[in-house]
Design goal:
By secondary structure, the protein is α/β, with parallel strands linked by helices. It is built from seven helices and 17 strands. Strands 4, 5, 6, 7, 13, 14, 15, 16 and 17 form a nine-stranded mixed β-sheet that branches. Strands 3-8-9-10-12-11 form a six-stranded mixed β-sheet, with helices on one face. Strands 1-2 form a two-stranded antiparallel sheet. Strand 4, helix 3 and strand 5 form a beta-alpha-beta unit. 42% of the residues are buried.
């Protein structure tokens, strides 16, 4: 049996498929990134992919899908920015969105930005909602919303440097294809009927796994304790949107500390997308986004960028004009 200088190939395969990359790294004293290089070498020698407990696998270091809609990303050192629930409407560039673009540009220039994640509900889809209209309120046409999304996302694309772009799809995003599937299923294979056809620079998926320890997806548990319940029940650090609450909830056990994170909203909580829908009621929503910092493959304490006031955000004890 060939050796990888620490354990035999069979022992490594057993550890990886039982504990995943992070757990194997802790067991044998290596970084997550090093574990993935070791995995690639072992896979070549044993002639099969190693599948982590979450069901993902790679051949070499190239991602291979074992579950439709799941993507993987390895980050040894660097920044990942996660925004969500932008619900872009024509002519509106909120304080949170402009701050998001500013942070993308700043970390992109530094070379530390590894990925930008739009964690669902980029598109509002108000005109194709399953909810009936309230009165005769004016809503933008779908084509206007698509153009607004292209304009806002284009601002990110222009300054992201070498960062990868992911779009973890949300329930509002799904309206685009759901509506077509309901009324015109015969168009299923025609270019342009899929949302991703209009946004070629963004990798769509239902979930993104970073270093096998952080899961980013639009939604899972609901309610005011969603972030706590998400991380307790998943056994992972899990980053969700959907609820617009913008918060970080730590949870610790014998395995260490992990986090349940809500990415808030890049929209104005009292913007025109929501006023009629919420009937003018107060909402416990917060506008902002999340900064994830990785050091030696490990996630440091997640940080919040929040809208302090019009054109001003708060981050690390400072107020920043945007």
């Amino acid at each position: 049996m060939q050796q990888n200088n620490i354990v035999t190939d069979s022992d490594f395969a057993h550890l990886y498929e039982t504990l995943g990359a992070e757990g194997t790294g802790r067991r044998i004293g290596r970084s997550v990134r090093r574990i993935h290089y070791m995995r690639a070498d072992v896979e070549k020698r044993i002639g099969r992919p190693l599948v982590s407990p979450n069901g993902s696998a790679t051949v070499g270091l190239k991602a291979k899908k074992f579950h439709p809609g799941q993507e993987t990303l390895e980050v040894e050192n660097g920044i990942v920015l996660v925004g969500s629930d932008a619900h872009y409407w024509p002519g509106i560039a909120t304080t949170a969105h402009r701050a998001f673009v500013k942070f993308v540009k700043q970390y992109g220039r530094k070379g530390t930005l590894k990925a930008v994640i739009m964690n669902g509900d980029v598109l509002d889809g108000s005109g194709i909602s399953r909810h009936p209209p309230i009165g005769w309120e004016s809503r933008p046409q779908l084509v206007q919303e698509i153009d607004a999304c292209k304009e806002r996302l284009g601002e990110i694309e222009n300054v992201k440097a070498n960062a990868k772009l992911f779009w973890t799809l949300g329930n509002h995003d799904a309206r685009f294809e759901t509506r077509l599937a309901q009324v015109a299923p015969e168009y299923a294979k025609v270019h342009g009927v899929h949302l991703q056809d209009h946004f070629p620079y963004w990798q769509p998926c239902w979930s993104l796994w970073i270093n096998d320890s952080v899961v980013i997806k639009h939604r899972w548990k609901g309610g005011i304790h969603a972030t706590h319940n998400n991380t307790v029940n998943s056994g992972k650090t899990i980053v969700t949107g959907h609820l617009h609450s913008l918060k970080v909830t730590p949870f610790s056990d014998y395995n260490g500390t992990r986090w349940g994170i809500d990415t808030g909203t890049l929209a104005d909580p009292y913007g025109p997308q929501f006023v009629d829908y919420c009937e003018g009621s107060p909402v416990s929503w917060r506008s902002g986004f999340i900064v994830l910092t990785f050091k030696d493959g490990e996630l440091l304490w997640p940080e919040i960028v929040y809208v302090h006031s019009e054109n001003v955000v708060g981050f690390r004890g400072e107020v920043i004009e945007v």
